[in-house]
TrEMBL record, chain A:
Keyword Transmembrane helix carried by entry: yes
UniProt subcellular location: Cell inner membrane
PANTHER family to which the protein is assigned, alphabetical: INNER MEMBRANE PROTEIN YEDE, SULPHUR TRANSPORT DOMAIN-CONTAINING PROTEIN
Keyword set, alphabetical order: Cell inner membrane, Cell membrane, Membrane, Transmembrane, Transmembrane helix, Transport
InterPro entries reported for this sequence: Sulf_transp_TsuA/YedE
Topology of the protein relative to the lipid bilayer: Multi-pass membrane protein
First-listed, main subcellular location of the protein, grouped into a coarse class: membrane
Family: Belongs to the TsuA/YedE (TC 9.B.102) family.
UniProt keyword Translocase, yes or no: no
Protein known as: Membrane protein
Source domain of life: Bacteria
Organism of derivation: Marinomonas pontica
Transmembrane segments: 6-24, 45-64, 76-93, 114-131
Automatic annotation (TrEMBL), chain B:
Organism in which the protein naturally occurs: Marinomonas pontica
Keywords: Membrane, Transmembrane, Transmembrane helix
Protein name, UniProt field: Transporter
TM stretches of this protein: 42-59, 80-97, 117-136
Pfam families referenced in this protein's UniProt entry, alphabetically: DUF6691
InterPro entries: DUF6691
Length: 132, 139
């Protein structure tokens, strides 16, 4: 049961946050979009506050929250750089990532987001199965 | 008020990633590894997040405007085009390579900096390439 409890709490928190943010600010949570606003747009205070909060909240991992699986051994910088380039460019070209398309988009049954999510899930599954 | 809600949203979202263990790329890769030693826990995360999110949109649809903003800014794009498909495919390949999508990648700056630094530096460059490309093609 414990193995179900944390993912459930995590998912509920993510959904609840998306809802609070939507109903109060009128906007959708998309991490790739918020990050690119921080980098390239004027009016950087709000995206900065969001990203700072995200990093602080995420750092609770393993201290406030349970860690059931060990971190991977530190991997090659080149793998991480290639991955980062693809994630950075791909999420901007495709207009969203796991949060914007995956959670918020599917929640409002956006056909674009459903197609995007199926596409990046399939690409990621194929990539992992090739690497293994 | 706007600033406080934005910061708290980021904080709660980060906590959600921490509880769901999406901050650990080994968990994410385990979830994507459906043909191997599959770890299905992220299905629970996605399903519960989307269930609550749907409730949120049901409430939104009954409201004229948001609590502290003038109007809704929910994306209204409908068309499915090559950019969406190619962008999502590239993102998926990158996600599968490391197990980091943007949110967990940002948390890795603290949780696992020897990986997070490289990933986020490259992510910023990748987003920047797209930004420059947009500016050039719009002129």
């Amino acid at each position: 049961m414990e193995s179900l409890f944390n993912p459930l709490i995590g998912g509920l928190l993510i959904g609840l946050t998306a809802t609070i943010y939507l109903l109060s600010t009128g906007k959708v949570i998309g991490i790739s979009g918020i990050l690119s606003q921080l980098l390239f747009n004027k009016g950087r205070l709000l995206p900065f506050l969001f990203i700072a909060g995200l990093i602080i909240g995420g750092s609770a991992y393993g201290t406030l929250t349970e860690q059931t699986v060990a971190f991977p051994e530190t991997r090659s910088p080149w793998l991480l750089i290639l991955s980062g380039l693809l994630v950075g460019y791909g999420t901007r070209l495709g207009g969203g990532c796991t949060s914007g398309h995956g959670v918020c988009g599917i929640s409002r049954l956006s056909p674009r987001s459903i197609v995007a999510t199926l596409t990046f899930m399939a690409a990621a599954i194929i990539t992992v199965s090739i690497l293994n | 008020m706007f600033a406080a809600i934005t910061f708290i949203s980021g904080l709660l979202f980060g906590l959600g990633l921490a509880f769901s263990e999406m901050t650990n790329p080994a968990v994410v890769i385990g979830f994507l590894n459906i043909f191997g030693d599959w770890n299905p826990s992220l299905i629970i995360v996605m399903a519960s997040a989307i269930a609550v999110g749907m409730l949120g949109y049901a409430i939104k649809n009954k409201k004229v405007k948001p609590w502290i903003a003038k109007e809704w800014q929910v994306p209204s794009l409908k068309h499915i085009d090559a950019k969406l498909l190619i962008g999502s495919s590239l993102f998926g390949i990158g996600w599968g390579l490391s197990g980091y999508c943007p949110g967990p990648g940002l948390t890795a700056l603290v949780n696992n900096p020897s990986e997070g630094m490289y990933f986020i530096a490259a992510l910023v460059i990748g987003s920047g390439i797209h930004f420059i490309q947009m500016r050039v093609t719009q002129k």
